[in-house]
Structure formats: structure tokens, C-alpha cells
Amino acid sequence: VNTAGTLESLLGGRKWHVTNLKVSGLLNIYDIQCIREMAGCYYNANGGKYTGNLHHLDLADAIYVSDDTALPLYTTFGQNGTFYIKNNIPYAIFSYLHGLQSVILPSNESSIGERMFNSCANLVSVYIRNSSTNAIGKATFRNCNSLTTVNIPSNCQTIDKLAFSGCSSLTTVNIPSSCQTIGSEAFHRCTNLTSLTLPEGVSSIEDLAFASCSIKELTLPTTLKSIGNSAFNNSNALTTINAKMATPAMVSENTFFNVPYDKCYLFVPEGSANAYKAAEVWRNFNHIVEDLAS
Hints:
Layout: H1 7-11, E1 20-27, H2 29-38, E2 56-64, E3 70-75, E4 78-86, E5 89-91, E6 102-104, E7 125-127, E8 135-136, E9 149-150, E10 158-159, E11 181-182, E12 195-197, E13 204-205, E14 217-220, E15 226-227, E16 240-243, E17 265-269, H3 273-278, E18 287-291
Parallel strand pairs: 1-2, 2-6, 6-7, 7-9, 8-10, 10-11, 11-13, 12-14, 13-15, 14-16, 16-17, 17-18
Antiparallel strand pairs: 3-4, 4-5
């Protein structure tokens, strides 16, 4: 696409029959609207829906072009805000596209904007090509309940609020060491997430970040300073916590609400058991064991 806004004319009559689409060049919001229609988006407040056939989208060589246009975003329940491109960062541009199954994002994408793939029910995989992408935005993958694979870039510093909430098919998450903050409800209701290792570098886990997951084994890094309210609420499958912090992280009364304190083993660094046994909330664990290998 040499001229932004011309994708539809380039496709011509093929638009409604394409299942796999690779796009290079310049894309503005009208090109995004064309792609949305191809993937079967809703088009009015009454639940009207296009019958597009697009399932696989490759934007590796595409470049977003900003303008001042915001187009209405429709869902089965009516209009739900708008989608747009601002400062070359897209917002909500692929939300509610039930036809999409896989997407490769542009090589130059520096940040994944808010609600990018919100409620894409059949989206299985997303590949983020740019390792310098520094943030996964608010509600980016919320309720993508078929999502099994997404690579979090090696330079990502923040996983924002609700980023992966409701991604019930995620079984593992590889969070890079560059990440400092896990936002509130970021992985809330990821009900098949069974194991979690947070890397060195993570300093803050915000409210409800991993609530209602199925985590059995949890590893917390030495850099962790605070864990928010209900962050691991209803993690009743939890049997092991490997806490690498010599000083217990700050927690709230309900950080581990409904965690089985009588069955879950809390492994702590050598020489720090007494600190955990004296710390609010941490002392509720019946089995606090010093890990001599730490």
C-alpha cells in the first residue's frame, strides 16, 4: 500500500474472499476499517455484522499512519467507543473481531495500544516482532479466551491493567526481566495458568493481577517490593510459593485471600524465616521453610 487509505481499492472484489492477508506499506484508519470488515466486524448498533472470511493477518511490513479520525467501534451490544491511531500507536483497532485467528504485528510497533485485541474470541496467536516494544496496553488482550500464544517483548517494562484478563486458554506466560510492573487485573481469570515465575526486575504486582487463576507453583523475585490487594485472590490450587525476597514484600490483608495457608508451602531465603513469621499476612502460612539453596 503506497498510499494510505487505498487498501480497499487494491483488493477490489477479492476483499470478501481473502482468508490470509499480508499487508506492507502505509495503513491509516480507513485501511484498518477495511481489514475489520474483512474479519467480520459489527457495523451498527443493532448487531449487524459483515460476513468476511479473514482469519490470518500479517502486518510485519506495515506502518501505521496517524490522523485525527476516530471511527465508531460496534459490538453485539451496540457502540462501545471508537478506534483510532494516535502518534502512530493504534487503539482498539482489532477489538471484537471474532474472525481473526492469528496476527503478526508491525516490526516498528513501539507500544501495543489500549484494547488492541479486546474480545477477539477466536484469536489463538499474536506475534509481536519488535523486541523494543515497551508496553502491553490496558485491556489489550482482554477476553481473548482462545489465546494460547503471545510473546511479550524482551524490552517490555509494563503489562498494563486488564491486559490479559479472561485469557482462559493461556497455560504459561514468559514475562521478560525488563518488566517492572504487573498492572491490576492483568492476568485476572486466566483459569488455565498453572505455573508462574516472575523474573528478577519485577518490583510491583498490582491489585487482582493474578486473581482467580489456577496457579499451583509461584516464584517471586528478589526485586519484588509490593503485592496489591487480592493479587492472588482465589488461587486455591496454590501449593508452593518460592519467595526469593530476603525482606518480605509489602502485602495487603487480602493479597492471598482463599489461598490454602494450611497446605501451601512458603519457601524463603536462608536466614529470613523469622522475618516472614513476623510479617503481616505472610505469617498466616503454616509452612514457612528456609530454602538452603537460595
